[in-house]
Amino acid sequence: MPGGRLNHQDRLDIAAGLEAGLGYAEIARQLRRPTSTISREVARNGGASGYRADHAHYATASRARRRRPASPATGARVLDPKREYVERFAAMMVDGGLPRMASRVLALLYTSDSRTLTAADLVQILRVSPASISKAIGYLERVGMVHREPDPVRRLQHYVIADDVWLKAWEVSARTNYSWAELAAEGIELVGRDTPAGERLMHMADFFHRLSEDMSGGGGFQDCLAVLAVLWQSDRRLDADELAGSLGWPVERVMDALDYAIKTSGQDGAEQAAGEDAVGEA
Fold first, then answer.
1. What burial letters (b/e) apply to 225-239, b meaning 16+ CB within 10 Å?
2. Where is coiled-coil annotated (predicted)?
3. In whole angstroms, what is the distance from residue 112 CA to residue 118 CA?
């Protein structure tokens, strides 16, 4: 029976087994591990309904680093609270549906004191290969969360986080839910609506369609998020004309977004978020 610690592939197999409805004993037999190893692993990392392989792997590695004793030759290891925060930040985004390495890059960019970071900076800080960074940056550029700015002096590419990054993250999550719904609908056609599998897939498709629609919320919702993103980044109150100028929109579109915020959040909450001047214009 193999010994040693669970690796990332083991955790992926555990997650797949739980998803398939297997018990701990059956998963343990397949991995040739003690049942107690599987039960402890799942209990420490969200339980059977909340277990996520990537998050469990990060969390276990983080716990191991915190427990590791200092080497007599080097003295006590100084923990870096910011680095641990970045990893927890990334793990939260992984749970939200973003790829693992893209989440780490995004978390680092967002928490960096510097406005931009180069690929070499990211490789050095995250301790990963240039290929991993290139793939992660490519994904973040495709979904609009990061863009490049050239450095004409040193001929380097600097990576900058998008101003509306959380709106983009929300849109990615909504698109992911829609993809799940479409995949379930495809399965229904394959197995038939009147079969047990078809019934399960119908429930899945309905759930993710509703979730995607709720997250997308139509144009008013998206415009509301964009307006709030500008207000959140500003160091002062903005009126409707200033918001329109920042967004490149007609004033009427800004007013509609503010009306939407008022109707969905309540007058007091919207005024606090948007500023008395802008809401007063509405």
1. bbbbbbbeeeeeebb
2. none
3. 12
How far is residue 78's CA from residue 75's CA, in Å, rounded to a whole number?
9
Helices 251-265 + 218-233 axis angle, to 10: 100
Q: Which is it for strands 146-151 and 117-118: parallel, antiparallel or unpaired?
A: unpaired
Contact assessment for residue 95 and residue 46, using Cβ atoms and an 8 Å cutoff = no
Alpha carbon dihedral 106, 58, 172, 253, in 10-degree steps, equals -60
pLDDT 10s digits, 122-175: 998 888 999 999 999 998 888 888 888 877 666 677 888 877 777 677 677 777
Q: Tell me the CA distances in angstroms from 258 to 98, 166, 167, 263, one per residue in order.
A: 30, 19, 16, 9
Residues comprising the chain, all counted? 282
Closest CA to 46 of 33, 61, 59: 59
98, 169 Cβ separation under 8 angstroms? yes
* 158 contacts 149 by C-beta, under 8 angstroms: yes
Closest Cα to residue 30, out of 59, 9, 50, 4? 9
The predicted-structure confidence for 22-65, as pLDDT tens digits, reads as follows 888 889 889 989 888 898 898 888 888 888 888 888 777 766 66
Q: In angstroms, what CA-CA distances link 221 with 110, 161, 194, 207, 213?
A: 24, 22, 37, 20, 11
Q: Give CA separation, 251 vs 66, 217, 238, 281, in Å.
A: 53, 21, 13, 10
CA dihedral angle for residue 129, residue 135, residue 138, residue 143, rounded to 10 degrees: -120
Residue in the structure block whose two tokens are 């038939």: 192
